[in-house]
Write a structure and sequence with these properties.
The longest helix has 18 residues. Helices cover about 30% and strands about 20% of the residues. With about 425 residues, it is α/β, with parallel strands linked by helices. The protein has a nine-stranded mixed β-sheet, covered by helices on one side. A six-stranded parallel β-sheet has the order 3-2-1-4-5-6, with helices on both faces. Strand 9 and strand 10 form a beta hairpin.
Length: about 425
């Protein structure tokens, strides 16, 4: 598996009235290094490597993974950490006082996010939860409700908000260079889709739900962020066009994605060793109507030769478009009237890494700890994470029901109030989680 699963059971709720870490000098937690756990030790667990840099003194003291292969990887990476065979064992050690945990980084498969996050929140352990928040809207709402009712800090790892390309696009919009945003179009060329999403649990909709959620939750969140609104109606369409026809399948238990990844796996139909179950769409698209009237579209294809995202944002006085989405790329702005031209009227280089998202991972982890310890506001919002799940999961329901338009329901008022009291706006950078006002 890409991320190894963990075994857990329900734990008794423990109400927590504030963050686990505060800036109160009388709190012993502020007088010692932060004790951090990792839940699930697959390929994505590498984000834990940023912990010590993000918050000097913080260190990994415990890892929970039910899979022996995951336990072996964890022991090799963190020989001084305690390796637990289940989430229950880790929480029991925390409750007994034998091994107090301040925060947990959850990198388990998507279908476990809901249960794992709820158990940790109820135990009073602050949670950094890999996106998506959950694979169903009901699951996402349960996690947010638990965070609100326990007061335990919750942070969702939507690291794409911290990427250079998104920061550049947001700054252009905030400066007013294209006027008021009215439309957002996103094309996602997932050139590594065969290796990334069709050779392990990601290909199984019972574990992933949909790649309109697992993969697109980043982009849906950024559509909302750039447009300053949330989706209220969706229409989806899509199909399993290529990978469903490949009959070479095998169980890859014990493997992680780098074990099989290769650019030589081309063309797409030549892939071998796909997951035994392949029932998620490899082409999908969705239309969104936002609460502020902005209209948006998103398209995703997992058998393109190239791998990048292309955004077009159209405002009342111009439009922007990114060419490339990492360092070396550029965001172009056309805001004067003329015929077609390759060059933008304004152009801005994209900063950051040339490949991947290590820089955004570090910034996201830093933001989590800065919020948890110092009470600083965050750019990433649990409400926004919920809205990404809502749009993606309901778009998948739409495409599987003949492209029926579906309206997005709202959260219970007390949950919305809990999070909005910690922010000046659901779309702003002022979201503060898990702290009483």
């Amino acid at each position: 598996m890409l991320h190894d699963s963990v075994m857990h059971k329900d734990v008794d709720a423990q109400r927590v009235t504030d963050s686990n870490i505060t800036t109160d000098s009388s709190n012993p937690a502020t007088q010692r290094p932060l004790r951090v756990a990792v839940i699930g030790f697959g390929a994505r667990a590498q984000i834990a490597e940023h912990v010590a840099v993000a918050r000097p003194g913080a260190h990994i003291v415990a890892i929970a993974d039910s899979n022996p292969d995951g336990q072996g990887r964890a022991l090799a990476a963190y020989p001084a950490a305690t390796i637990h065979p289940s989430l229950d064992a880790l929480i029991e050690a925390h409750r007994s006082g034998d091994a107090t945990i301040d925060a947990a980084i959850v990198t388990t498969p998507d279908n476990t996010h809901e249960g794992v996050a709820v158990a940790l929140l109820q135990a009073g352990i602050a949670v950094y939860l890999e996106k998506p928040l959950a694979i169903t809207l009901e699951g996402a709402d349960r996690v947010l409700t638990t965070a609100a009712e326990t007061g335990t800090a919750l942070y969702v790892g939507h690291n794409f908000r911290h990427s250079g390309v998104v920061r550049t696009m947001r700054e252009i919009i905030e400066r007013g260079e294209i006027g008021e945003v009215k439309a957002v179009w996103v094309r996602h060329f997932v050139g590594n889709g065969g290796d990334y999403y069709f050779k392990d649990w990601h290909a199984d909709r019972s574990k992933t739900g949909t790649l309109l959620l697992q993969k697109a939750s980043h982009d849906i969140d950024i559509v909302h962020y750039l447009a300053s609104g949330y989706t209220r109606r969706v229409v989806g369409m899509g199909d399993l066009m290529v990978y469903g026809d490949i009959t070479d399948r095998r169980d890859r238990t014990g493997e992680v994605m780098p074990d099989w990844f290769s650019f030589d796996n081309w063309p797409p139909a030549s892939h071998t060793g796909l997951n035994p179950v392949v029932d998620v769409e490899d082409v999908s698209m969705m239309l969104m109507t936002l609460d502020n009237g902005v209209m948006a579209s998103y398209q995703q294809c997992h058998f393109t030769p190239d791998y990048w995202r292309n955004y077009t944002v159209i405002g009342t006085e111009g439009r922007l478009e990114n060419i490339g989405d990492t360092a070396g790329g550029v965001v172009k702005v056309w805001n004067r009237r003329h015929d077609w031209q390759v060059d933008g009227d304004l152009e801005y280089p994209i900063e950051g890494v040339t490949s991947g998202h290590d820089d955004a991972d570090l910034l996201t982890m830093t933001e989590f700890f800065d919020h948890l310890v110092d009470g600083l506001p965050t750019l990433v919002s649990p409400l926004a994470a919920r809205e990404a799940v809502a749009a993606g999961s309901l778009a998948a329901a739409s495409l599987r029901e003949g492209s029926r338009p579906i309206d997005v329901p709202t959260l219970p008022a007390h949950v919305v109030d809990y999070f909005t009291r910690r922010t000046s706006s659901p779309q702003s950078a002022q979201t503060t989680l898990g702290r009483t006002s």
